[in-house]
Amino acid sequence: MKNVFIYYLCLLAPLALIYWLYDYYEISSDLLAGIIIIYLLAYKSYLDGRRLVAKNILSRNEIWIMIIPGNHLRFFKELYLD
Fold this sequence. Notes:
The protein has helices at about 5-25, 30-55, 70-75, 75-80. By secondary structure, the chain is an all-alpha fold.
């Protein structure tokens, strides 16, 4: 996932889907909070880890470290600017 456009599309499309579910189906705020937490902890961490693996910054075994708070800032330039 070296292409920045594809990365941002994969990053933002689930947020649009979450907003659509919240608006169209009027899901409860508890369920919305749970979905957002899963998005932030699981999906975004995995997606960022996969991007760093594709750029040969991390190995496949190190994807899990992206769930630790602060690692997104450590790799900010590689994730969002390159």
